Amino acid sequence: MYRIQSCFRLFQTPLPGEKVEHVKEFVYLGSLFTNDGKHDRDIERKVNAGNNVNGALLANMNTKSVSRPARLAIHNGVLMPTLVYGSES
User: Fold this and answer.
1) Per-residue pLDDT reduced to its tens digit, 31-56
2) Helix, strand, coil percentages in the chain from 3-state DSSP, rounded to 5
3) Among 11, 23, 28, 45, which one is most buried in terms of CB atoms within 10 A?
4) Residue 46 near residue 68, CB atoms below 8 Å
């Protein structure tokens, strides 16, 4: 069974045997959709996710035993995808 959510009450589309749950916000494909249509909370959520990843990696990234190319690879392979996931929507 699929879970169907909507933030907008623009129109009612009858779905056979399905109820549409109207919610204030939900996440779909990495983007936060809100009933007011603003992107502030989505951007804040993505920045917080990036900060969490950065905090988790900080101890390893600040050691001299990790080479600069390795740190760059971690930055480009882990941190940047976390920040930009879903940003094209």
Assistant:
1) 888 888 888 888 888 888 888 888 88
2) 45, 15, 40
3) 45
4) no
